[in-house]
Structures are given as C-alpha cells and as structure tokens.
C-alpha cells in the first residue's frame, strides 16, 4: 500500500443549521403578553394544518411592535455573531420579514422553504414538536426538538417542516438578507 502525503477534503454540499438560545429569557414574556392580547387577530393559514399566524397583523412584527425592540436587538446580535463566525468579518444584514406562528394541538407545517435568504426561528413554548430539515433529492432528514428560547438559524433554501404537535406550539420566525 502506498503512503499518502496528505488527504484533503473537498466538500461538495454542506448545509448547516445553527442552534443557540436567547440569553435573556424575560424577553419571551413580552411576546407571550402580546400574543395573549392579540390572539384573536391571528388568522388561520389557507391550508388545513391547525396553524395561526400574525402575518395579517404585520409583515415584520419584530420592528412593527414597539415592545419587541429589545428582542429584535437580541436576535440581531445572534445573527451578527453567526455571520462573524462564518465570514470572519462583520457583515451587514437586514431582517426583512418576521411573524409569529401558533400551532394548535395536532398542528403541523408541510415541507417548505423561505427562498434565497437567511432564516431563523425563536421558540416561545416548552413542549415543541420536532422541526425536520430535509435535503432533496437525497431525502436526507434531520429532526431537532427545540427547547423554549432556542434559536435555529439556517439557509432559507433548506426545506423544513414541523412535525405534528401534541401541544400548542408558538414560535417567532424571521428572514434576513445580507447587504452589500
């Protein structure tokens, strides 16, 4: 057998999901209070999966609701850290869309993607069902059960779905773009 000098890795496809958590859990109380006071304004999604959304209230709830200012800053700091880790420099970005989802008992979300952007989800409840990430056409799947306060960040072109929930499940999702 011939001895090799080095073996280099060539990555043909790398898709990552980053998992962290909110440092100030008290910020979740503000969101819960908002949801309790405005739950009747949330609307059902157009498909039959027992989910309500704040998208009819606001297209960017993190910035349109004044009480969420501190939460928005905390989430921006998480994105800044991630971008610095990946690019080794501070990279400007903009959260251009954010919304709250409330899945009722037996609620779920079909496989979907968010498009050419960065995406993230902040989990607002304790008993969350799995979020499953899917790589097509290989049909590779990885499921994560997020805890309350968890923040998952991923490429918006990554398919993902929410597995049927046994309990009410609330999350705040958002999309961001890098600025040039």
Q: What features would you describe in this structure?
A:
The structure is a single chain. 19% of the residues lie in helices and 34% in strands. With 180 residues, it is an alpha+beta fold. The chain has one domain: Jelly Rolls, CATH 2.60.120. A hairpin with a 6-residue loop joins strand 2 (43-44) and strand 3 (51-53). The longest helix is centred in the middle third of the chain and has 19 residues, at 69-87. The mean pLDDT is 92.
Question: Which key terms come to mind for this protein?
Answer:
180 residues; alpha+beta; Jelly Rolls; 4-stranded antiparallel sheet
Summarize the structure.
The chain has 180 residues and is α+β, with helices and mostly antiparallel strands. It has three helices and eleven strands, in the order E-H-E-E-H-H-E-E-E-E-E-E-E-E. It has one domain (25-178): q2cbj1_9rhob like domain (Jelly Rolls, Sandwich), CATH 2.60.120.
Mean of all residue-level pLDDT scores: 92
* Distinct helical segment count: 3
Oligomer: single chain
The main sheet orders its strands as 1-9-6-11-4-3-2
Report the principal-axis shape: globular
Report strand %.
Answer: 25-35%
Alpha-beta classification: alpha+beta
Which CATH architecture? Sandwich
Under CATH, the topology can be stated as: Jelly Rolls
**SSE sequence, one letter per element:** EHEEHHEEEEEEEE
> What is the CATH H-level superfamily?
q2cbj1_9rhob like domain
The CATH class: Mainly Beta
Largest sheet: 7 strands, antiparallel
Uncertain segments are none
Q: Please tell me how large the radius of gyration is.
A: 18 Å
Number of distinct beta strands: 11
| Count of discrete domains | 1
Helical content class: 10-25%
First-last Cα distance:
51 Å
